[in-house]
Batch of 4 targets.
Target 1
Amino acid sequence: MTWRSAATARLTLATGVLFALSVYICCHDGALAQGLKSYDSNKKEFWTKPPEDWFLGDETEQQKGLAPNPGQPLPTPLAELEKILATIKLPQGFKISVWASDIAQARQMAWGDKGTLFVGTFDKGIVYAVTEQGGKRVVKTFIKGLRMPTGVGFLNGNLYVIDIDKLYEYPNAESNLDAAPQPKVVYDDMPPYIPHGWKYLIADKEGWFYIPFGPPCNVCYAPTSVNQYRRVDPKTGMAELVAVGIRNSVGGDIDPRTGHLWFTENARDWVSDDLPSDKLNHVRKLGLHFGYPYCHQGDLPDPVFGKGKDCKDFEPPALNLGPHVAPLGMKFYTGTQFPAEYKNNIFIAEHGSWNRKEKNGYRIKRVIVDPDGKNAKQEIFAGTWLDGQKILGRPADIQIAPDGSLLIADDQAGAIYQISYSK
């Protein structure tokens, strides 16, 4: 890097910090006059009884009035899905198609040993089972009555479902898909907070699950039981703390080259349209602190919580993915269908922004990175699920099919797509 480019980078960072500070001063000194919302989310009553718009944090003038899409939409009809997929751009040789539809709120996916695809949901409280019958895919409700069973996993013949503060085991789940077996709770040392309480399950080779714990706020001094990843043994209920300083992670995978955990992270909201960036993180050793709530995107001190802190004291991201792209599920590509250069690449489902004037994300990213976490680079692999500013879909998870193709869960369209390659 030349002295000129280095100076430019420092100026850009300084400008971002000054802007964030000015936003904070504006919000707090002029909130009443401007009608901006502001919350003290550092209190237990906020975490246990959050307001409906808890996600707002300290609203800014620039982003005033922005809010997530209301409710959860109904699944998109098949004919419309096919029209949408005709607009999705892919590298040469790849194609995308509807693998299954009418799966409302499709979130994390997990393969059973006998070829059943289990699919978690958001607040619908359902886990679906997708099977092949007579050459057709059949979607059925397998479990119902839960709260937010976003995370599912499958190990040793058992289905695991995580629902806010309980990890359930459904033994021999594929033996009788007509009625889910009675579950047992295998881990429940988890906080009960609903905000950012939905979770994701990442299985390792030892049969443990890595589990993220998000803070019940936008940005706050959160309870010590959150802002972290834990590793949990479902056989014994034992757990260990893996990493801290993490905001909201709803996706990750184990690097097949090293056994290390990698995970996506959604950064805080309400700084600006372009700050801070969401991240891809690499846990190269136990005990790392990834900066939240003190520092964002590796180099941006928080305007409130970053006072007196140095971003250099925290673990930097392996890659900044862009502002408000909302990266969720991710997978290392371990299949054999794609060309050789895709081996061990990371595919990330970007759910898409909600508090940005110009929407960002709504696509699948491809990340190429060395096993040590260096030389990371990214490109758009599939996208985008946008028509101007109209949302056509929201990728939420990625799974590798037995034939080496990629499956993409879309929780807005209520569908699962398949991306395949042919020479």
Target 2
Amino acid sequence: MQRLTQRPKERKILLGLGILAAASLAAAMLGLMPHTAVTVAAGGINGWRLAEPVTYENLTIFPVVSGEAADTRGFETLDEALASGDAIVTESGHNGMRRSRDFDPGMDEQEYNEGAQVNQLVLVYHGKRPLLLLAGELLSGGKQDRIIGKDRIVAVGARPLPLDVFCVEHGRWSNSDKFTASTIIVHPSVRERAAVDQEQGGVWEAVRSGSTATESRGAASGAPAAAPPAFSQQRIENEISTTAPTESYDKIYNSPSSGVPVSSFTDEVQRRFERATSGIKDGAVVGVVIAYGGEVAWSDVFASPALFQRYWPKLLRSYVVEALSRPQTHEHASLDDAQEFLQHLDGRENTESEPGVYRWTEITQGHYVEISLESLQPVQVKLHWLKIHRTD
């Protein structure tokens, strides 16, 4: 693995203004109203447009539209690979047990005797297409449920490799060894702790607290007081004491007995999203920008509409869980807010790469983090782009 750290780059102000001006002129020439579709100077394959937002309760989703798409059929997702048997994920073996900096002193010493590691699994991949992994994807089973710690690509023919993960089931350490597909990606507060902080204690804290957002930073002055979140701290504690004694993420946030309307909320947003995006012309949806109340907080954008659709069901559910974990406010972010969110950062850049396979890049600037995953073979293309407004 190669690592590179660069100092902040100079912002190319004149170029950015020129792109925005050209985009605005093109929209005017086409007779588009300002809030029909906005072209933004923010990467993508051929530039991105924002379609009209979809709003329900405290959640607003801005579809990201592109006029071009990469051919992403040559990549396999984690859920597909686990379901087909192309990928096998197991606990690590007896040879490399070590105490990590995030070890919980209250954890049973049996885990050391058995040689497994909380924050590392083993992945064996036999597939014929490169395997795409996204931070926050849940692996069900083993001694404890885990989530993928970082976006990456696994090459065809790769040797068995150590896989960095984080535990999302604090109280179980069983004799099970293998993992299965869960079709779950954890909600943004938990996903942020894994993808950005890379710290086990923070992941556990986010699972137990619901949302790590401490306040509604987008709230306007004089706005009505927000209602308490559906996934309140008390409700989560009750769920842990009854149906989720091992603090399993899956059981806390996907249990019908919790009384939180995750499924109905998700179904309603999906109906509105389909209706809003069905008439889009000259392009298709490749991603979304997400806002909670008045705060634009998250964005997932992919290299093609097809790849976006493969992840959309579990991404949508994760956004809904986050919405239900935050105070219920009816304030909404604007299209201009979402457009500004899509702008690239000019902060400190860290890069990791596996030659001939992928390049992972993280840019941090203030409270914002931008992460991109680029495939180098069989085609060079930016497969996934993620931007986060940090909750702390």
Target 3
Amino acid sequence: MDRRSFVRLLAAAPLARTAGADTPPKVSVVSRYAPAAVPGMPGPFPGRVVAVHSERSVDIVTSAADAEVVREMMARGMRQLTGAATTEDAWRRFFEPQDVVGIKVNCGGHPWVVSDHGLVAETIRQLMAVGIPAENVCIYERFQNQMDNVNYAPHVPAGVKIVAAESANRRVDNRGYDPATYVEADLFGEEDTRSNMMRLVSETLTKVINIPNVKDHGATGATGCLKNIAYGSFSNVARTHHNGVSHTRTFVGTLASVEPLRSRTVLQIMDGLRGVWHAGPFARTRKYVFYPRKLFFGTDPVAIDRLLLDIIDDKRKEMGAISIHDRSPRYLKVDDGRARDADPNVNIIIREPGHVEYAASLGLGIADLAKIEVEAVEV
């Protein structure tokens, strides 16, 4: 059954900020790239989100997705977003045969919550349908070991490239990063104060599709479009949160705004088939996995991520956990990283969900969060 409804997402109370983080750290952005006339973020549909739901999309017993249902959800979401009469025309709204397209996946939630294999495969199939050869499509992530665990290769056409910037989160090999495109910031007196953009993004790709997951995060409250594209395209980003304090409020949006990443990221497809409501961005146990069974489509990462904050916070409230907006020091336990995984009422960092609002202030999305519009489609 096809059921559509239109709702307006009203902004909640102002997103509180961590004490001590009111003064943003000084940053210096270095890039030789000029912005496009119409940057990919927020793109042609600022403030608009299409949310496609299907109860048939995921078997919550096995956690397996139904590829045919996912394909239909993708087609409906893209047509609804663009207003195109056909699915191919919807994809042609963003892509041309000469494009070299990167698909920014999220592999950190292995084994339970990663960018779905079928969703990624269908994205590639649609890119090829508009004339882009498989050799001009790259699935990318920062760490090769995470990509190896998820193993997209058997699910996608021959010729598709699978690219990582470094072997693992060890910071021993920086050859995959562009030395001339970076953000300089001394956040906690760390030795290495530079975060460099992946060479693939700055030197090879012409377009980027962002496919994040619905996930809780200990430093930002939730990790979706903004953090996936920003922290997943730059080196040396874990340094932004330390000893209970997070500078993610400003740093996530700053990274996402760097050219050419901002201009080339033209489509956001959030994978909400499965989600993590606590202990994210990882999903080492199924204990904190839940099943929204939704896909979210848009060009505005701020709009989708503002919706994400409510999805995660509502689920945490349902499960009796503290809110991602809670700033009380009584929940903070910085001396034991395991506490986050063990207790949903413990923070190891005071969270900064205000990164969404800050990204809006940089022009990455709709300025007035009270005007975000969500169009719900049932498949």
Target 4
Amino acid sequence: MHARRRFVLAVAALALAACQQSKPGRIGIITALSGSQQAFGQAHDRGYDMALEEINASGGVLGKPLEIVKYDDQSKADIAASGVSKLVDQDKVSALVGSYSSESTKAIVPLVARRGVPLLMPTATADNVLENTQGWSFRLCSGATDYSNAMVKFWKDAGVPKSVAIVYENTNFGQANGAAMKKAATEANIPIATEESYTAKSPSYTAMLQKVKEKSPDAIYFASYLLDATSLMHQSRQVDLNPRYFTAAGTGFSTAEFPTEEKGAGKDADYTFSVTQWMPESKWPGSAQFAEKFKAKYGVTPAYHAVQAYVALKVMAQAVKNAGKWDPVAIRDALKAIDMPDTIFGPVKFDARGQNLHPVLVTQIQKGKYVIVNPKSEATGDPILPTPKWSER
């Protein structure tokens, strides 16, 4: 009892220190501006910049221009962890938004709790990032469980596969999404043909994919970042792997680059299904206008990662306004109570765990373009099934 009381007092003291030391007007950003996840970090960066420009054009926060301090975690969890002390202790930010990957985000969650500074996660999907938050962390996006449940729902609408192979990279993100699909498929009485984990950025996946082929799965569910998603589809063609469904837990399979020849799988990306958290065609107000503005500014159509960053900064800025002061405890409490029904990412409201209740879409790449195919109420086209064999494309 006494030890617990000392721990609570220590946390309170740290939170008080953060309140006293933070510099009004600053929000810290942690994301992957370099390294293997740079494509996603760049999308984040652009979303943050667009939000900052709009916030300051409309008067800033509490009467002053908002300042964001960016930190590059280089796509590495240990460097993301170092970013917390840099931004909070040196740059004196009052709140944090980040990171990109589940691995990096999980590393920073206990650190912000110790310092008594609120964290808003825009993108990390591993559900364990919401563990050990002590009430200081909030997640804007849907998680791995939501992803797998959305894909299983799509299968039930389109034709339940006879079996599924689960292929995931050996990181917090991959493991969480692989485990979530195993649970969801088992509950739906879909047999697991095989489970295969791999090391990211391996030179070749053909041996692993050959093992998957030998199991003749009716569906494959990938959990992969962009570089691996590209290689996995090229090499699926090389080994002539032909399931009825190629599906994925978003991420690499749902980026603007993935269907392109320059940075992605090109034509080998066609017919793949993926969960996603936003599309320009989404019916949330302002989605189409944001996509147009983003494309005019950067020359590409945004994927959901840019939108998550854009909305995350808007939500954090609104929390500061609702708090009425640059006080970490007040900002945290404002996040707990926030209710923003009309963002371009849909309604934003956090449950007791700090999770925003955000719906998930399923898309298919058709002729190099993402088409929403589920839920039917949001669909912009019908799924093409079964996936054509490589020899017939």
